[in-house]
Amino acid sequence: MRHLPVAGKAITLLFTAALLVACSGSDTKDAEAEAAAAAAAAKAAEEAAAAEATARQQQLDSAAAALGNVFYFDYDSSALRADSIDALNAHIAALQGNERTVRLEGHTDERGTRDYNMALGERRANSVRDYMVANGIASYRIESISYGEERPIAYGSGESNWAQNRRVELK
Amino acid sequence: MKWLTASVLWTLFALTTMGVRADLTIEITQGVDNPTSIAVVPFAWQGAGTAPEDIAGVVDGDLARSGQFSPVGRSDMLGLPSSEPEIFYRDWRAIETEYLLIGRVSVAGQMRIEYELFDVLRQKKVHNGVETGPVNEARMLAHRVADAVYEKLTGIRGAFATRLLYVSVSRVPGGKDYARLTLADSDGARPIVLLESREPVLAPSWSPDGTQIAYVSFETGRPAIYRQHLATGQREQLTNFKGLNGSPAWSPDGNSMAMVLSKDGNPDIYLMNLSNKRLTRITRHYAIDTEPTWMPDGNSLLFTSDRGGRPQIYRYDLRNGNTERVTFEGVYNARARVAQDGRNVVLVHQQDGAFHIALLDLVTNRLQVLTSTELDESPSIAPNGSMVLYATKYADRGILAAVSVDGGVKFRLPAREGDVREPAWSPHMSR
After folding, report:
1. Which of B315, B298, B308 is nearest to B330 (CA)?
2. Which residues of B touch A118 (CB under 8 A)?
3. How many Å apart are CA B429 and CA B139, to the nearest integer?
4. In chain B, whose CA is at the least distance from the CA of A158?
5. Which residue of A113, A151, A159 to mutate against B (max B Cβ within 10 Å)?
6. N or C: more exposed end of chain A, with fewer CB within 10 A?
7. Which of B104, B64, B58 has its CA nearest to residue B84?
């Protein structure tokens, strides 16, 4: 919990401000000065909290980015693979506490007909979407779109190429 | 939605037709065992200068591509007659020619082609005809001559005076590919780019009268179905639903379009009334239902569904709402297209992990695999039911290829550049 020191400082500042307010006498000048100090302290606390939130979001974003935004699938399958879960959870964590939207682009390999693959790509994108929704991301924040086999990463044939193309990209 | 003026499109079209084009060439790989020998003598040009088009050359190419004819090479011809009195039958018998086609071409405002077909052995005229039309449609007139000769000698209506739609793609590794929707003659000549996009373009299909086309374009960042008039370029966006907008298929009467939408949760078949744009939902199943195609009588639709676990072809009867499974052979049968006879169905059939084009006879239920390459898809049947055009891979490139419905004739149409796919053979064109 590396964020605690910052939060701790903010809380200390808040307490100090509260004490100052509590100890003030009937002198209006003192009261005004104290109120100003309290406001400044509150503002500082707010800024510190915002800075902390930004830092935390950046950390979550870089953690998600490090794990990648591409989730791979088995042939003719739209079931999420176990090796996608950590990365997906990291992306979900980075989407908590904000209102950002994401686009899930589903893709297939070249085998099978194009229109069937269009449907399969959508199924894959929807598998990722359903997992995200089940883990607390509102569905209106997610757009699923299928490109079927129209946007390969690897142009060649054979499993090594096909495996790279059966994917959902989170953008 | 109102008709959109397509000035942008036509600007694009003008630019792209000057640039890179996926011109197709033709390589005949297999013909029938005893093709009919025919000499198509260069037609006499009855005008000033040189003829605007080698009419006989186009006819010769058409007949050769059918695989049923073996045209005589021009260098083997001992004479070049252009009228009946100039014919010396012994010259043609000497080189074992069975039929002889001669003709004359003139232009007086319109182009006029007169031609005569002779049976060499019986030494008699078996057919003659005249084709007239605009000079810039010379190739189409030549294809009509080929259609008439083909019909006279085989008893089957020719399908050379037809056109093809296909999608060609220029790869941009690591970037967005260029996709071009192209219109060409049935022999791949005269390609015209109708749409160019950095986003996918797919599923081109024809209206039953051949005057309009429909396709799916991702140009807005999402798939949408468009229809476009070929003569004017005028186009209209028909759908813009959340999810899939795919597989447009015009009904035989031209009044409605079958399509795939997933707006209600998962892919189902819908019918759109093209005059009021009202939708009727046809399938209602949690499985993938896609690739609708019409039976020629317009009473039922074939479609692909994986409701049984793997993709198979089903038939939906519009009269009673019944759905029945059509294919049972093999684990994968998809994307059917029906011949005008309502009997022959071409589809993609998986066998030992490879995807081939197969022909299913709806009367006998016999399924015959027509191709032996591994990644064959998108079969489109000629309007006369004789040949099937499809997409395959050759030397790691997407190309078009064709096979006759009996599997006896095969040819390839490799592009000089890019990957070519999704051929759609036009209906017979009205004059």
Report:
1. B308
2. 223, 244, 246, 260, 290
3. 14
4. B396
5. A113
6. N
7. B104
> Considering B90, B123, B154, which residue would you say is the last residue of a domain?
B154
Among the partner-chain residues A115, A144, A156, the one whose CB lies closest to the CB of B335 is A115
- Length reported for chain A: 171
Cα distances (angstroms) measured from residue A151 to each of A14, A81, B34, B391, B423:
55, 21, 45, 17, 19
How far is the alpha carbon of A153 from chain B, nearest alpha carbon, in Å?
Answer: 7
B202 and B148 within one domain: no
The nearest alpha carbon in chain B to A149 belongs to: B200
Nearest to B290 among A119, A145, A155 (CB): A119
- Map residue B46 onto helix, strand or coil: coil
Torsion of CA B185, B187, B192, B195, to 10 degrees: 100
B169, B180 Cβ separation under 8 angstroms: yes
One domain, residues B388 and B322: yes
Note whether A127 contacts B: Cβ–Cβ < 8 A. Answer: no
**Interatomic CA distance for residues B241 and B222, integer angstroms:** 9
CATH number, residue B287: 2.120.10.30
Closest CB to B290 among A116, A145, A150 = A116
Closest CB to B422: pick one of A110, A114, A116: A114
B222 with B326, same domain: the answer is yes
Q: Does residue B339 fall inside a structural domain? A: yes
**Are residues B143 and B256 part of one domain?**
no
Q: Tell me: do B246 and B132 sit in the same domain.
A: no
DSSP B321-386: --EEE---SSS-EEEEEE-TTSSEEEEEEEETTEEEEEEEETTT--EEE---SSB-EEEEE-TTSS
On chain B, the residues whose CB falls within 8 A of the CB of A155 are 171, 173, 396
Q: Which domain holds residue B48?
A: 32-154
Tens digit of pLDDT at every position of chain B (431 positions): 334 444 434 434 434 443 444 577 777 777 788 899 999 999 999 988 889 899 999 999 999 999 899 999 999 999 999 999 999 999 999 999 999 999 999 999 999 999 999 999 999 999 999 999 999 999 999 999 999 999 999 999 999 999 999 999 998 887 889 999 999 999 999 999 999 999 999 999 999 999 999 999 999 999 999 999 999 999 999 999 999 999 999 999 999 999 999 999 999 999 999 999 999 999 999 999 999 999 999 999 999 999 999 999 999 999 999 999 999 999 999 999 999 999 999 999 999 989 999 999 999 999 999 999 999 999 999 999 999 999 999 888 899 999 999 888 998 887 877 899 999 999 998 77
Q: Are residues B96 and B181 in the same domain?
A: no
Query: Among all residues of chain A, which has the CA nearest to that of B243?
Result: A145
Q: Are residues B217 and B98 in the same domain?
A: no
